[in-house]
Fold this protein.
Amino acid sequence: MDTLLIIDDEKSLLEVLEVVFKKEGYEVKTATSGSEALEILNDNSVDLVITDIRMPHISGMEILRYVKENKPEVPVIVITAYGSIQQAVEALKVGALDYIVKPFDVEELKILVARGLERKHLEMENILLKKDLEEKFRFEDMIGKSRVMREIYEMIEKVAGTDSTVLITGESGTGKELAARAIHNLSRRKGKPFVTINCAALPENLLESELLGHAKGAFTGAVSEKKGMFEVASKGTLFLDEIAEMSPWLQVKLLRALQEKKIRRVGGTEEIPVDVRVIAATNQDLKKRIEEGKFREDLYYRLNVISFEMPPLRKRVEDIPLLVQHFLQKYCKQMGKKMKRIAPEVIGIFETYPWPGNIRELENVIERIVAIEDRETITTACLPPEMLGIVKKEEFRIELTPGFNLNDHLDEIAKKYILKALEKSGGRLKRAAPMLGVSYRTLRYLIEKYGLKSKIKEESWVEEVENGRR
């Protein structure tokens, strides 16, 4: 609900405008003097100001200048008497949205107010998204052409056409917020705010205030009323990350907001209607949290109207070369460096590394390499030490018993390493070979020697054999 502040020393006019705009669904605050108006502006959140220019002591022009200096995002409409148009023109130069001349048509004023609030909402959205302007993610910008990612794209397109709540699960760093933004950008709400809040980043009392807002004096430090993210995201999308970290007490309030589509600010008494699409995300097993008594089952079902899981990077290995190229271009450009090449053996290691931090970890690795490496080609020497010890040496006890055969023993050890590498590479020779420090031709020979062809994807084997013949 938008809040209007109307300032005029004519009490009768003030009363009429208060009634008119309350009927239009606005919250209305009034002031009969400039000093009273300044108190309201200092202590309250206001979305638009309507002020008469001529008032004793503190004029409407002084109010206008105060708003432009302290709350520049708040539009101001000035009221002027016939014959004072010059003052109105001056007000426009100072920053007023528009002016209206007494006596005026209330319908005309309604139009001016609606226009001013629309402009204000656009400016607020720009502020919220300012940090993302350089690389605002759209659905088309999601990197990946693997089968699992194509399925995610299809799901996003279907979900975007609804207003249902969505629950996105998946490990940390898999792109859950990116998927939520894609849903928003493809939805009918795309021109409205996309607001994010991390439920694990704030203590319980601050998270409640951040979500629902608070009334003046609700707690120590609440010197003025504040809108919560439910109101800030009006007509848009509210993304609740790490939803599993929300306390059970606050879960009750979230459940009520989702069911009733109304909120009550902390310390407030008024029910405020909200029109927001909620998308939640978590890297935890919510069903397990429910069994442990840490997450409400009714809230889970309210959030889980539509759900999907973002795949970890190890399950979309074929996307790694695309992601590497994307991040290389991004950071070489940001740091003003010549585009770097990447050695094939490095891609091989990337494709076999388990990536516990997923895409975020891959991006960090590429950023670090671009920042500290001067060489044009990225080799294995550029990689962090933990990425070079993928296949660890197996400890074993040496027992020289009668009948011991060194060749047979070495063959058994080799088979164990090959099987481990094939398991980690999904049965693909080109990815397993760098892990073992051999060429794929050598690995193909050893697989034939040890009778391990059944451990390889048949299409991979055919592909590798054909490549070897070329």
About this structure: DSSP finds 19 helices and 16 strands in the chain. Residues 254 and 333 are 42 Å apart (CA to CA). The chain has four domains: 3-128, 140-311, 314-387, 406-469.
